[in-house]
Specification:
Layout lengths: L8 E3 L8 H24 L1 H9 L12 H16 L7 H11 L2 H9 L9 E3 L8 E4 L11 E4 L6 E3 L2 H11 L2 H26 L3 H4 L2 H10 L1 H15 L14 H8 L5 H17 L4
Antiparallel strand pairs: 1-3, 2-5, 3-4
Helix pairs in contact: 1-2, 1-7, 3-4, 3-10, 3-11, 6-9, 6-10, 10-12
Protein name: CHK kinase-like domain-containing protein
InterPro entries: CHK_kinase-like, EcKL, Kinase-like_dom_sf
Pfam family, one: EcKL
Length: about 280
């Protein structure tokens, strides 16, 4: 319950794509955070089971998520229609198939696929809105030295791939990923492995790197759908967001189903292009 602003922390800017120093710090901290779950599963399984039983996912399993499914499909179809039917067939068919099964994909993620021997406590909304940074090096004032994750209402137990997909594909752009995606995954895994070793556990046993890569492929549709939805919210001007408490569901859906800008279209098309390049089936 500390006031982190009084300690020199400031909230990240969710309206701009993240740069490498910020992304690096986030990925390293996510690695440490997930390592704590893996160490508990290994050394204190009863404690982890208690946390898992009392950290049930509360949004994707609620009626409140139904309008979001509609918005994802509406926005996805806007992106789909932006492609040239002949020149862009490589992207059109996979996206069309994916949008036809959005509901089924999320239904599957609500069930046992979210759990298993590699599941960890996820933050659940790992984006710049919910990360505070401290800049403690006067020689490099724009480079963050510490961070604090806030807003834990969507915390749940799932594959670590969920937090990774959410952060990277909501908060970075295609050009950035072309330079840094593989490196950031390695930095995440190295950070996780180091803390696990310090805690007395073995990362290669608890979460092999190739399993993490497989989970990123397996849960890629989640990453795409979240990017379609959250990026549209983040790129809208505040004045263009309806009053969520005093507007009807139809009004909210209609307002939030409009692509905010050409930059949004470029961003989501970049995610789709990268998924195809990475071999992620969505």
């Amino acid at each position: 319950m500390d006031n982190m602003k009084s300690k020199g922390f400031v909230t990240g800017n969710h309206r701009v794509e993240v740069d490498y120093p910020h992304a690096l710090l986030v990925m390293k901290e996510l690695g440490k955070f997930h390592a704590m779950s893996l160490a508990m599963r290994d050394q204190k399984p009863g404690v982890f089971r208690h946390l898992q039983d009392n950290c049930q996912e509360s949004f994707f399993n609620s009626d409140s998520f139904e309008p979001v499914l509609t918005m994802i499909k509406n926005l996805g179809n806007i992106v789909l229609e932006s492609y040239d039917p002949i020149r862009d067939s490589l992207y059109i068919e996979p996206l069309k198939r994916s949008l036809s099964k959005v509901n089924d994909t999320f239904a599957g993620m609500r069930l046992q696929e979210r759990y298993g021997e590699y599941a960890v406590i996820n933050h659940g909304d790992a984006q710049m809105r919910n990360i505070m940074f401290k800049y403690g090096d006067s020689a490099h004032p724009s480079t963050p030295t510490e961070l604090c994750l806030i807003d834990w209402q969507l915390a749940h137990v799932a594959s670590p791939a969920f937090d990774i997909l959410w952060f990277i594909f909501v908060c970075t752009g295609q050009e950035f990923r072309n330079r840094h995606y593989k490196q950031l995954l390695e930095e995440y895994y190295g950070s996780m492995s180091t803390l696990l070793r310090q805690l007395g556990s073995n990362a290669e046993k608890l979460l092999p790197f190739d399993v993490l890569m497989e989970h990123l492929r397996k849960f890629a549709p989640y990453g795409l759908y979240i990017a379609i939805w959250i990026a549209a919210l983040n790129m809208k001007e505040s004045a263009n967001i309806p009053d969520l408490y005093n507007s009807s569901e139809d009004v909210i859906i209609n307002h939030l189903s409009v692509a905010p800008s050409q930059a949004y279209m470029t961003k989501i098309r970049g995610v789709i292009s990268d998924f195809i390049e990475y071999g992620y089936t969505f």
